[in-house]
Design brief:
- The chain is α+β, with helices and mostly antiparallel strands.
- 40% of the residues lie in helices and 15% in strands.
- The chain is built from eight helices and six strands; from the N terminus they run H-H-H-E-H-H-H-E-H-E-H-E-E-E.
- Strand 5 and strand 6 form a beta hairpin.
- The radius of gyration is 21 Å and the shape is globular.
- It starts with a helix and ends with a strand.
- The site of flavin mononucleotide has 9 residues, from strand 3.
Length: 252
């Protein structure tokens, strides 16, 4: 049994106690830990708008994220307009159809040319063409996966490239602050990396304020989840190298 599993077992045994800012042997997960561990990505939302006050509270959680040099290197764009969200989803679907046409070289009528294009793209953008986003391109193109999962509110997070040191890290922390705050308020979220596709659309870039120094990095779909998708899940453990007392050991 790993340490993590042991704490989980203890948590089940004593569900009543809730502590913050202190630790006792065998205590259950505190509310912050629970919010972190039980948050899941939500891909089905109720047709019910999130009150503006809640969205503002979530943005506040983002604003309080730590940043290198306190540079707060981001800009938020909030979209709550159903027609605009639909239009954004449609645009990305269309783009994905084009990507699929070029990248799915085994089935492309372009034959060798498509193969060459795929090879080149995979080398230029190895992370973006990792098998998972590659598969998602097809799903979006076929209308089986919607960009924002039809969420009623979308928070777009733009990085300010003038930020100190590592603005992309700042933006990631900021986004996660918002996602966790939303979850703690009973809302569901899903990170949407596919907003990257808007960089191919001049009209959208202009509308969303993308352009030096702002680059669109992530979207966060936000709304009331259908059902209860949250909860603790099994997650693959990875080796951790642990140095102490002059020697290294491997823990999980
Ligand atoms: C940077 C980032 C980008 C993501 N982009 C997408 C996306 O475009 N569409 C989507 O449905 N999920 C997206 N996800 C959600 C992941 O698929 C999800 O976090 C992962 O499968 C783990 O599941 P969990 O969030 O429920 O723990 C993204 C997550 C992150 C952190």
């Amino acid at each position: 049994m790993t340490d993590v599993m042991e704490v989980e077992e203890n948590a089940k045994a004593s569900p009543a106690a809730v502590d913050m800012y202190e630790w006792r042997e065998g205590m259950p997960w505190n509310p912050v830990e629970r919010v972190i561990l039980e948050r899941r990505s939500v891909r089905k939302y109720k047709d019910k708008q999130v009150p503006e006050r809640l969205v503002r509270r979530i943005l506040e959680a983002g604003r309080f994220a730590p940043t290198a040099g306190n540079s707060q290197s981001w800009k938020f764009v909030v979209v709550r307009d159903r027609d605009m969200i639909d239009a954004m989803q449609k645009y990305v679907q269309l783009r994905c159809k084009v990507f699929k046409f070029f990248l799915n070289w085994q089935k492309s009528p372009l034959g060798k040319l498509a193969w060459f294009y795929t090879q080149l793209s995979a080398r230029v953008m190895p992370n973006l063409l990792h098998p998972i986003p590659f598969g998602a391109i097809s799903l979006i193109a076929e209308g089986k996966l919607k960009l924002f999962h039809d969420a009623p509110t979308v928070i777009l997070v733009l990085v300010d490239r003038r930020g100190a040191a590592k603005p992309l890290v700042d933006v990631g922390i900021c986004g996660q602050n918002m996602v966790l705050a939303a979850h703690s308020l009973g809302l569901g979220t899903c990170w949407v990396g596919f907003v990257e596709v808007f960089k191919f659309g001049t009209r959208w870039k202009k509308k969303l304020g993308v352009g030096w120094p702002y680059e669109l990095i992530e979207g966060i779909a936000l709304g009331y989840p259908v059902g209860n998708p949250d909860g603790m899940i099994e997650r693959e453990l990875q080796e951790i190298e642990w140095w102490e007392d002059g020697r290294k050991r491997t823990v999980f």
